[in-house]
Amino acid sequence: MMMPLLLAAPLIGAIVNGLILRPATAKRAGVIASIAALTSFASVMVQHFAPDAGPFEWTWFTVGELTVKWSFASDPLTWMMCAVVTGIGSLIHIYSIGYMSHEHNAYRYFAYLNFFLFNMLVLITSTSLLGMFVGWEGVGLCSYLLIGYWFEDINKAKAGMKAFIVNRIGDAGFLIGIFICYQLFKTLNFAEIAKLLDTQTFDVRMLNLAAFFLFIGAMGKSAQIPLYVWLPDAMAGPTPVSALIHAATMVTAGIYLICRMNGLFLVAQDTSLFIAIIGISTALLSALIATSQRDIKKVLAYSTVSQLGLMFLALGCGAYLAAIFHVMTHAFFKALLFLGSGSVIHACEGEQDIWKMGGLKKKLPSTFLTFTIGTIAIAGIPPLAGFFSKDMILYSALTAKSYGTTFWILGLLVSFLTAFYMVRVWALTFLGEYRGDKHPHESPATMLIPLYILAFGSIVAGFLGMPEGLHLLPNYLEAFLHPVLGPLVEGHGALSEERAMAVATVSAIIACSLGFYFYSKPERSETPGKILVPFKTVFENKFWVDELYGLVIVKPFDALCAFFAKFFDPNIIDGLVLLPSKAAQGMGSLLVLLQTGIVQTYLLFFVFGLLVLFMVLLKGVVL
Amino acid sequence: MGMEHLLLWLVTLPLIGALVCFALTDELSKYFALVVTLLGWVLAFFVYQGFDSAHATQLQMVFNYPWLNSMGVSFGLGIDGISFPLVILTKLMMPIAILASFNEKKFMRFFMSCYLVLDSAMTGTFLATDMVLFYVFWELMLIPMILLIGVWGSEQRVFASVKFFIYTFAGSMLMLASIFYLFSQTHVQLGQYTGEIAAFTKLNFSPVEVFWGLNAEKLVFLGFFIAFAIKVPLFPLHTWLPDAHVQAPTGGSILLAAVLLKMGTYGLLRFAIPIAPNAFVEFSTCVAYLAIIGILYGAWVAYQQKDMKKLVAYSSVSHLGFCVLGICSMNTKGLTGSMLQMVNHGITTGALFLLVGMLYERRHTKKFEDYGGLAAIVPYFSILFVFVACSSMGVPGLNGFVGEFLVFMGAFEANQTWAFVTVTGVVFGALYTLTMVKKTLFGPVTNAENRSLKDVTLKEWAAILPLCILIVYLGLAPNSFLSKFNQSLDTYWAETLKKTALDAGTVK
Amino acid sequence: MSNFSSVYWTQFIAIALIGLGMVGFLIRRNAIVVLMSIELMLNGVNLLLIEAAHRSGSADGTMLVVFIITIAAGEVAVGLGILLNLYRIKHSSDTELYKELQG
Amino acid sequence: MTDGIFIAIGIFTLLCGSSVILCKSPVYSAFSLILSFFGLAGLYILLESPFIAVIQVLVYTGAIVVLFVYVVMLMNPNSSGAYRNWIFMIVSAFLAWAVSLYLLKALTLGVAPAVGGAHALSLKEVATLLFTKYLWPFEILSIFLVVMIVAVFALAKQSKETPNE
Predict the structure, then answer these.
(1) Is residue A568 part of a domain?
(2) Which of A384, A580, B305, D63 is the most exposed place for a label (fewest CB within 10 A)?
(3) Residues D75, D80, D82, D86: what is their CA dihedral angle, to the nearest 10 degrees?
(4) D42 at interface of C, judged by CB pairs closer than 8 A
């Protein structure tokens, strides 16, 4: 009973809000939406403690030997992801009641949010690749609708479209992955695939190909190197949307897909290596860009891309548990940071440039407190969540089979940069004097409560997956997810786990103090910019990646389409079709010239005809 | 009313309605036509119930009336797995097309009788089991369509209708040539003239090369294929579609997109492939290439269009490319996918044209620059618009996806590179659909008239709602509909390709 | 006068007449002269017929000539009637002016 | 001797014929037409068919050419540009010459040897032939003439209505 309720609640919430009631005030719409989210969260909790009957099954379509069923799994991995999605989702629903209070028809926003939750849950709970694909595209659609929520501004609509198209490219790859999987395993069900992978051996090249295309799908959705350009632009949507979709849930779908198909990726070794390389390079690139961004949400967006890069690094190195653990902790503190920045923007009436803020410590005390906890967590300072999950990733990178140490060093650099830019953002917004012209005020209670809960989550989440070595707490997560993700691979790297942890902590502390030193005092905040001037411009313009895409892909494609639409189709193909009619007209106008109207010309033709006749009749006779 | 007369009523009821329509006044003829087509729904429901899905391969509810005895031609109607979904689609779309053209100003009586004649001609084409009868209905179908575009169209309607007529008619001339050849062969090979399609499929051809290395079978196939390729429209022969759509009235566009385009693919399945299987097997690769080019080309050209209806017309070229690709992949998944895609495309593009028609009735312009930011002004319309756009893009959960997915599976099985290339078609499909949505709904409200647009009226809701329900129904639970004609598609390839070079192993 | 050494002469003259008539109705701009040259051609034919009748001795040729003359009379009458009407409109008999029936 | 007269008259007729088409003013060409018809009549006499010669003179020259002259007088034609442009004349001359040559060739090919005695055709023979073998053409001819008269009247009447501007 619980599973259908889990899905039905947000769907009904969306329909009630969007089509039936369409309540006038944001408050009423928000309340309905939040109730729907909370019921699905409750049903997840109930599902865990009192699991009901087996998976709920229903055939979608059967064609020849291909039968596709809708069925919902209830294994630990799904449960954990559902808990994270619905938990943080409901918090964000409550938060957005306050955030969207002044919007005039906010029911549309809440309907989309609920519909997004429904699609995300379909993605997570489905037991077949195709069911997941349905959720996959549904989530892409909702992010399109939500990013383009304020559609009056054409750029926001364009950002939404860009997000959808880039996701669609990833989905195309995903589709090909599904076809290859079906060709290999003759089934799309995860459990059956896992079983087949254990029992039979398949052509490794095909497995790698399938894994590669599935990874392209993950790349599109979780914003990795070639297809990450849509995430920073997706900040055009309202901040709670960025928190929910572009930090906590949707972007982690790629990681969930790879964890769900871990059997395949374990076997496809060179694709995993490729994933690790892509992961670490994305992390490094976006961390560098984040260091010099002006807009607070852009910084957080790039930090999300870099954290995702780290997760993919873990996946590449085979540490699926580390990735999922980081997904969970990251969901907490990134959602916290986004919502914190949301309340800052809400307070400064839409101002997003950190250089025009500052000194908000006094005016927004609780936002300041929660934001600080979030910053410390993401920076990786020991007691908080960020430290444990990031360290698990770094350690797994260290013990990876190939290039272990290089991945570890690069990972360390990424976490150093992360700590640096987060403290930069934190210092510029909250310390020093207020540089803006607005008069910020503390956000209402509905926005602060979720912040406090998330802050608490960021502190506690780390303890769930504490590594054994510390002998403080057993690794609950490892025990919980063992059946799905397989054993934690015990490797040995250059350093032992404790020493690696120590090095990571030291680097985080150095980065924080460096950041604090520079950005707490206004006069010193310019210096880092001056030291690495050439790099600053490069980072600020995001390595000109968008412009590069525009030049290399968008412009030639537009030119090609324009060529076809304006020249090739109307003139060449249509020309060929209209050719006979034009030829007929041309011939006609030629013959008209013969009709001079003067009688003698006709007589001339007459005599000429006579002559020809005689010639024909008297062929033999030569004149 | 016995089962066998059901099909006869299916064809003749609208014809009688058309005649009666002449006598009524303009006002009355509208509602009368609606009633007749709703009766069509009832009949279609009976057919849906009466159709025995167990043996969908044989012709059911066969109605036979000797017509030209000397030539062995009979007025034969029958329905089987291949024509079943398309007949249902035709009967479904008729009342919607009529509802969409309620506020036409001039000659309403003749407008409605044109629709009804078109309805009976289309149903007849799908149900005909006799080659000559099929050809008669095939040509009869053109005439009302020409009148619809030519008389009630917009600015350059005459040019468009003449182009449409000549283009399609030229194609059907080639088909006629093949029919004559086959007809003469029936006398030679089977003793006496007969129009039965079943008899035609049993003919075998002399392998002698006629010219350019084409033997008799290839020529017959080409005759049929070109006529159907024009109708589909396949890539190089598609230029009549945008003109016809842009100038056609809303109802005309709906029927043109929803049903007339399916004649081509239906013809391929019913005539071209069973009659000349070897030729099809040989040509299937280049037909597939044409289809793939059609998919990508249609999407690219649609992306740059300034006129809404032209964009949707080119999108139809792209969607129909999927159907043909499904057929060319020569396996059950591809074929079922293409059959589903035909029905889905009919519903989705019908709804899309309905919406574009609504805008045209309010603003009398189809250009994008006249619209912008409608989402704030007409919320219900924009919800419908985005909903149908999603279905046209093939977002899973709606009907577009199931058909496309199966075509991809079939194409992947037949030839992997085909699937790799066409999957990018999905991205381009999303691109032009979203550009259309962006240009009409989003952005600031550019010109003033848009502010006073009124939202969807009751009549329009009545027209669009059944389509939306079907979009969701076919998207989530296509199985009940699929199981009806599934069996015939499974055995289709087994039967038709049995006679071909199966032993030569050309079929994978 | 009964027999000639050769038939050649009469045929030569007749055909010359026909040729002259043909040239006449091609190069002259005056409609009446065109009609006259047609008469010339007809007489050329008559001459041929008479010569043939004379040579073969049967009277058929003369019969034909009588018919030709009557028809020529009718033809001239109508031709001139039309010319008169044209003249009434155009005030000239020049064929170059009657060009309304142009393409 | 008779050959000589025959050739002389033949040349005379041809000369008049050519003057018909060459004279600028139509009046002169009409008169030269009359002269050529007289020449022709002479030739007919030499070919022993006096009846036709008489008909030629009486009907053809007397009636038809007179009609021509009458119309020429009515129209008082200005003999402006008599001939067409040069190229036209050369082309038509060449064509006429070629056709005549072919005609000559055709005639000489098909000439049957002189069969039976060439004897003068008496009027009685012609008359009996007219009313036996050629009765039907003769009757049809009369109808033709009636039609011709009606036609001419119609043309004439029409001219009354058209406003003679």
Answers:
(1) yes
(2) A580
(3) -160
(4) no
Best of B164, B412, B461, B482 to mutate (most A CBs within 10 Å, chain A): B412
Q: What six digits make up the tokens of C80? A: 């001139």
Identity of the residue in D84, D102, D106 whose CB atom sits nearest the CB atom of A600 = D84
Q: Which own/partner pairs from B221-224 qualify as long-range (CB within 8 Å, at least 24 positions apart)?
A: B221/B178, B221/B272, B221/B275, B221/B276, B221/B279, B221/B280, B221/B283, B222/B174, B222/B279, B223/B174, B223/B175, B223/B177, B223/B178, B223/B181, B224/B174, B224/B175, B224/B178, B224/B267, B224/B268, B224/B271, B224/B272, B224/B275, B224/B276
B213 conformational bin, left if phi > 0, alpha if psi -120 to 50, beta if neither:
left
**Which residues constitute the domain of residue D148?**
121-165
Nearest to C23 among D59, D96, D115 (CB): D96
Closest Cα in chain A to B441:
A151
Q: With b meaning 16 or more CB within 10 Å and e meaning fewer, what string describes A37-57?
A: bbbbbbbbeebeeeeeeeebe
Asked if B160 and B153 count as a contact pair (C-beta separation under 8 A), the reply is yes
Co-location of D127 and D70 in the same domain: no
Place of tokens 């704030």: B376
pTM recorded for the entire structure: 0.84
Residue A575, domain member (yes or no): yes
CB atoms within 10 A of CB B364: 10
Question: Which of D48, D77, D106 is where one domain is finished?
Answer: D77
- pLDDT 10s per residue in chain B (508 long)? 466 688 888 899 999 999 998 888 888 888 999 999 999 999 999 888 888 887 777 888 888 888 888 878 888 888 888 889 999 999 999 999 999 988 888 888 899 999 999 999 999 999 998 888 999 999 999 999 999 999 988 888 899 999 999 999 999 999 999 999 888 888 888 877 877 887 888 787 877 887 787 888 888 999 999 999 999 888 888 889 999 999 999 999 999 999 999 999 999 988 888 888 888 888 989 999 999 999 999 999 999 888 999 999 999 999 999 999 999 988 888 888 999 999 999 999 999 999 999 998 888 888 888 888 888 888 889 999 999 999 999 898 888 888 899 999 999 988 889 899 999 999 999 999 999 999 988 888 887 888 888 888 888 899 999 999 999 998 888 888 888 888 888 788 777 776 554 444 444 3
- Domain presence at residue D35: yes
Exposed / middle / buried, residue D137 (Cβ in 10 Å: 0-12, 13-18, 19+): middle
DSSP D111: P
Task: Say if C53 falls within a structural domain.
Answer: yes
DSSP three-state, residue B342: helix
Q: CB count, 10 Å around CB of A555?
A: 11
How far apart (Å, rounded) are the C-alpha atoms in residues C11 and B453? Answer: 94
Query: Hey, what are A371's tokens?
Result: 């934001």
Residue A222 C-beta-side C-alpha neighbours within 13 Å: 32
**Total domains, chain C:** 1
Three-state DSSP at D53 gives helix
Shortest distance between the Cα of A594 and any Cα of chain C, in A, equals 8
Per DSSP, helices labelled H in chain D are 2-22, 26-46, 50-55, 66-75, 86-110, 123-131, 135-161
Tokens (6 digits) for B340 = 């589903």
User: How far apart are the C-alpha atoms of B269 and B263, rounded to whole Å?
Assistant: 10
User: Which tokens is B387 given?
Assistant: 């909903």
| DSSP codes of every residue in B173-223 | HHHHHHHHHHHHHHHHHHSS---BHHHHHT------EEETTEEHHHHHHHH
In a domain, A455, yes or no: no
What domain count does chain D have?
2
Task: Judge whether D68 lies within some domain.
Answer: yes
Identify the CATH number of the domain in which residue D68 sits. 1.20.120.1200
Gap between the Cα atoms of B89 and B126, Å rounded: 11
CB contact under 8 A, D40 and C43: yes
Q: In this structure, is residue A580 part of a structural domain?
A: yes
